[in-house]
Amino acid sequence: EGTDSERSEKSQKSRAILARSVANGVIQEQ
Questions:
Q1: At residue 19, what are phi and psi to the nearest 5 degrees?
Q2: How much is the mean pLDDT over the chain?
Q3: Structure confidence at residue 3 (pLDDT)
Q4: Distance separating alpha carbons of residues 2 and 17, to the nearest angstrom
Q5: Taking every pair of C-alpha atoms in the chain, what is the biggest distance, in angstroms?
Q6: How big is the chain by its Cα radius of gyration, in Å?
Q7: Tens digit of pLDDT for each residue in 4-18?
């Protein structure tokens, strides 16, 4: 599975990617 630190690192990365996607979507909509 992986250690807690590895898991939290992955969730932080996916959260950053998600935030970037949302930001890109907002920019494209305007």
A1: -60, -40
A2: 87
A3: 86
A4: 21
A5: 41
A6: 13
A7: 889 899 999 999 999
Task: Write out the two tokens for 8.
Answer: 């939290």
Structural tokens at position 20: 């970037």
Distance CA 9, CA 29 (A): 30
Question: DSSP of the chain, one letter per residue?
Answer: ---HHHHHHHHHHHHHHHHHHHHHHHHHH-
Q: Which two tokens stand for residue 12?
A: 């932080």
Structure tokens at 21: 């996607």
